[in-house]
Every structure is written in structure tokens, then in C-alpha cells.
Design goal:
- With about 290 residues, the protein is mainly β.
- It has 1 helix and 22 strands.
- A 7-stranded antiparallel β-sheet has the order 1-4-5-9-8-7-6, with no helix packed on it.
- Strand 18 and strand 19 form a beta hairpin.
- The two termini are about 20 Å apart.
- About 0% of the residues have low confidence.
């Protein structure tokens, strides 16, 4: 997803390769200024607020936001003496985060013995995402992780025919699906509900979220588990797929103009999981 996740160029499963005379380093880290105002909220207090956040991209990790110390409430950081080792960046000092009557251990960290080539991260603090109450860009809450500036979503209309089958049963057939192209993933085809036999979709418990699309509902189809999904309140940037349904080609048979779709290696979605027990209503209010 984006620069370093899924099949991004800095991930081990990159879809392409760098055109260099020799092999590039096995692990490449990339740091850049976010160029957006980002804030952190903990126990009803703003504990960080900065327009100079540095985002660190590491292979197979979501982007992580690092705040300059001068933009962090120093009273919110409680040194704990715990030090671990980052495989590339060395000593990592951990802090508890405190505000009001609440303290959370190992909720923030800082690199304290950086090499010269990584000096851009000196004096910067990162906060554990699930340990905080919320992160914001300006006044809008963001879910999951710091925004990846290299992540892109394009949605296109198509006149191709999409058919979904489970065994001998036709689950959906549409002559006007839309295709969603998302950085690092296979194209995903979304079908209007009018073109689906919704009696075959069985809602299941457990939602995931996407920082770029919103909260996601899932459906079983017969014995195919979580074989379909939908964003019933998709973010306005992707509202063309709002309440449409997409189907997992590895769980049910999906045909595009008669040709069955299969995911290439590395294109299966690695879910974000739960953002510190995020509830559906809370996420939709972001």
C-alpha cells in the first residue's frame, strides 16, 4: 500500500524493481516531511501539534509520523528507562504518555543514537497509534496510520460484464460495475446492489477500516467466508463505491467478460485490523 506496504517499491514484495547496475540494499528507509498539520489527542488533551512532522517509510510497515520535540507537550512524556534496538536506526528510548488522570506505558518512542545519514529524525517523537485516542490532520480525524502521500485510488466506469458465481449459483451479474485501482493492490471490481442476489449475502461480525476508504462490512456467501465486502459510508473522496459490493476472487468465482480472475502473488489484502477497538459509529464520525 503506497510506498512501502504490500507491493510498493520499498516493500520486499515490490511489483517492479529498481533499474540499478547492482542489487540495491535489502532494506531501504525513506523519510520526508509530511507537509500537513498533524495533531495527537490523548485523554481529552492535545499532546502534539505540528506542521513539521517527518514520516518514516520502512519496508512492510505503515508510515509512521515523528513529531519534533518542540511541538510535543513535554509534560505528556514520562521516561521509563526502557531501551530497545531498531535494526536500522539503533537505540530506541520508550516513554509512557500521561495526561490528566491517565497514563499509558510504552506509548511513545524516540531514536537516541542515530547515524549521520538518519539525522533528520533526531529530536523527534513517535506515538503508538493504538495507544492514543485519535490522530488528526487539521480538524479531521485520520484512521489507521499517517497518510501515505504515495497512496492513490482511481475509480473508473466500465462497460465490461462482471459475473460472480459460487458453485452453480449466480451471485451477481453486472454490465456496469466500477473498477477501483489502489496503490499496491489488484484492481477491485464493485457491483451495484441492484445487480446482486442479496439473499445470498450473509453479514458477519467484525469490521476493518481503510484510512482511505472508511469502515468496511463483510459477508459470507454459503461456505465462502468473508467473500464479499462493502463500504456503506465510504469517504467522500471515494463515494462512487458507496454501498456497492466487491467480491474476493480467492473465495468465489469472479468472471470478467467470461475470463475468471485470479490474484497475483502479493495482491491479497493484508487487513489493517482493529484500531484500538474502534467502534463503527466512532469511525464514521471521523
Amino acid at each position: 500500500m503506497g510506498l512501502s506496504w504490500q507491493q510498493g517499491p520499498l516493500s520486499p514484495g515490490a511489483n517492479g524493481h529498481f533499474l540499478t547496475p547492482g542489487p540495491p540494499p535489502e532494506r531501504m528507509l525513506f523519510a520526508e516531511r509530511l507537509r500537513r498539520r498533524m495533531r495527537v489527542r490523548f485523554n481529552d488533551a492535545w499532546i502534539a501539534d505540528s506542521e513539521n512532522v517527518i514520516v518514516l517509510h520502512e519496508p512492510s510497515r505503515y508510515p509512521v509520523a515523528y513529531f519534533p520535540r518542540e511541538d510535543v507537550d513535554e509534560q505528556a512524556l514520562v521516561a521509563g528507562g526502557k531501551v530497545t534496538q531498531h535494526k536500522d536506526l539503533g537505540d530506541t528510548a520508550w516513554y509512557a504518555v500521561h495526561a490528566g488522570d491517565r497514563t499509558t506505558e510504552r506509548a511513545a518512542w524516540e531514536f537516541t543514537a542515530l547515524s549521520k545519514h538518519a539525522a533528520v529524525l533526531e529530536g523527534h517523537i513517535a506515538f503508538a497509534w493504538r495507544a492514543m485516542d485519535a490522530f488528526y490532520e487539521e480538524d479531521e480525524r485520520i484512521l489507521g496510520h499517517a497518510a501515505d502521500q504515495y497512496h492513490r485510488i482511481d475509480i473508473r466506469d466500465t462497460s465490461r460484464t462482471l459475473e460472480v458465481r459460487h458453485g452453480d449459483t449466480v451471485v451477481a451479474r453486472s454490465e456496469h460495475p466500477v473498477v477501483l485501482y489502489e496503490s499496491g493492490f489488484a484492481p477491485r471490481w464493485y457491483v451495484p446492489r441492484a445487480d446482486i442476489d442479496e439473499t445470498l449475502l450473509r453479514p458477519v461480525e467484525g469490521k476493518t477500516f481503510c484510512p482511505y476508504k472508511g469502515l468496511c462490512d463483510y459477508y459470507d456467501i454459503g461456505d465462502a467466508r468473508r467473500a464479499a465486502w462493502s463500504y456503506p459510508d465510504a469517504y467522500r473522496e471515494v463515494d462512487r463505491i458507496n454501498d456497492m459490493v466487491s467480491f474476493e476472487p480467492e473465495q468465489v468465482e469472479v468472471y470478467l467478460d467470461g475470463e475468471r480472475l485470479h490474484l497475483e502473488p502479493g495482491q491479497t489484502v493484508v487487513p489493517h485490523g482493529v484500531d484500538r477497538g474502534l467502534e463503527a459509529d466512532e469511525g464514521r464520525a471521523a
